[in-house]
Amino acid sequence: MVLSKACTYGILASLYVARETHQENEFVSIRQMSDELNISFHFLTKILQKLTKSNILISLKGPKGGVALSRPPKLITMLDIVIAIDGPDLFSECLLGLPGCGSQKPCPVHEQWTAAREDLRIMFQGKTLADTSHDVEALNLRLSLPKMENKW
Predict the structure, then answer these.
(1) pLDDT score at 46
(2) Spatial CA neighbour of 18 closest among 64, 73, 75
(3) Which pTM was predicted?
(4) To 10 degrees, what angle do helices 78-86 and 129-138 make?
(5) DSSP bridge pairs for 59
């Protein structure tokens, strides 16, 4: 998987906030989001902190608090979310993590990965949170992850 679990969850959380907020500065409960997406509350909180620090979300403490989008979803790209959580290295580093990989000393997948990561960057840049949220709704896709069952 190219994106980290945190990044995948950050995308799901951002889509959830975009879906749940219909007015500017409408806040979504982090506990509610955690429960509905089936993501650990503490893990989700850390992810949301990164999105807040990157000015994708704003947060409000207190009983009516939670998180909201910092700007309209049509102005937030999927690339913004990916970089906020996983950083920009995905679009410049070696897929295998080999030091020194580059055009002078390419790794076994260097050429293919160079093309693929540029395609990924273009795709993430071209999809806004509004576009993606609309597509998820139009395709009737669920945002929540399957519940983990204890096998004890």
Answers:
(1) 97
(2) 73
(3) 0.87
(4) 110
(5) 67
